[in-house]
Amino acid sequence: MSNTKKGPTTATSTGPQTLEKIWDGDLFDRSQDAAFLQRFLMDQSQLVDAQKKRKAYVLNLDASWGRGKTFFLKRFADQVKQDQHLTVTVNAWRDDFADDPLLAVMSAIDEVLQPHLKSNSKAQKAWSAAKKETGAIAKEAAIGGGKRLVAFLIGNQAVDGITGLISDGMAENEQEDNGTTRDTSKKPTTDSATRAVGEDVSKAVGKSIDRLSTQTGTQMLNDFQSKRNSIKKFAENVSEVLRQLEQAGTIKSPMFVFVDELDRCRPPYAIAMLERIKHLFEVPDLVFVVATDSKQLSHSVKAVYGVDFDSRKYLKRFFNRTYEFEKPDTEKFIRSCFDSMGVLEEKISTPLDNTISLLAKGCDWAGLELRDIEQVVASIAAITRLWEPNVRLQSMLLFPYVILNHMGIDITKAETFVKELKERGRGGWTFQIHAHTRSPGSDSVSVIDQLATYRKYMGMQLTKMLFELEQKANGMDFLQYLAVNIREEMYERKARDVEVYSYMNEYHRLVLQAGRLQ
């Protein structure tokens, strides 16, 4: 029997070799999530169709920054496309300059549909009708948006308009006051003039509002009914397009629309996008996959509706279900960051040369999120790339410094920060020194506890430091490991007879400088 590892497969006829190519570079095994979600969404779309529900299915892919949402959506779309489903990708952040997100979504759909419409006149006709209704819907949105803008920002033009409105009303007042006009030859006092103007303005605004209410009431009702009809026709026409293309054997249902970067958009645009998806695309055989960082998106909602608004509950109403990625393996993520940021590992000294494992354990110990881990690696990358001495950096001192600095602990106060860590109950960051032990437990040390050891010896001159370490090692693996590195530094610096101190004394300055890069 062959032991060759097979590539991921889907429920369709897509070959494993094709999927292997699509998911090349999949560090977090997201292909397994895609295989499950494709089967799930296909089933849910069929269920909606069987129940005669005229609505799209909307899935929220909820993952925080750095967990590969964009990587996943792109490859998930490619996978679905291989199975002859129409796939549309919308980069919400790239398109949020538009007033109405409906236009961005329709533009993306139009680009995908066009090659399939040339040989299908019925589908082409339905799509033209849908685009016509899009114009009517977007026009109403633009008018509403303009009104809200004036209400929010009363600029010079708005002031001019209001002034004109009041002037007209005041002119009417003068003609209606007992059928006469005011005697302007008499010079009023300041107080009486102020009262007169106030009364005139009050009357003018009241008359204008009454007139506008009478004129626009019927029109507003007509506009509402017209907009509702446009939305209904829009959904019917989109549904007809998909039906015609499927009957012709051009595509398979459902059509997938992938929306990415929504949490990076302007708050009003992000909310409008969700509203458009919910209210306009009441179309069977249509699946939306919306990638968000729900925590970040909820802040956007609060920015619009207020800090006391229940944004989490509000967001849930837009989605049928939410899918969350499993937390990725820390070591894999760090390896990816090391490669992309150009960390020079050859400049780092780590027991057993297991640099990634040491840093991963430290990040897990500190409870860092992926965004924090990336910033930690960025600091390490900057330090290794700018490190000039021909002496390797001590990772068991450098990595704790970088992580503690990122946590907001003052690493310059050598006499207090180790004590502070112990008081916080921060234990558990242990690391193996040697592959084979001579005594039980002698190979595993607490990295945080060893900070005190580093601080104890760093204040000594190199020659004295080496002498003390060799005297006190006595089978203690960590002290022996440290002595080897100090001997290496002495050799490189030719410092046997020179009173010099270890380069380790410079670490905290480099860490602070690198940490200021955001």
UniProtKB/TrEMBL annotation:
Q: Which organism is it from?
A: Fulvimarina uroteuthidis
Q: What is this protein called?
A: P-loop NTPase fold protein
Which residue intervals are annotated with compositional bias (Basic and acidic residues) in the record? 179-189
Judging by the UniProt lineage, the source's domain of life is Bacteria
Lineage of the native species?
Answer: Bacteria, Pseudomonadati, Pseudomonadota, Alphaproteobacteria, Hyphomicrobiales
Region Disordered, annotated ranges: 172-200
Query: What's one Pfam family here?
Result: KAP_NTPase
Give residue ranges for domain KAP NTPase: 51-385
Cite the SUPFAM superfamilies for this sequence: P-loop containing nucleoside triphosphate hydrolases
Q: Where are the transmembrane segments?
A: none
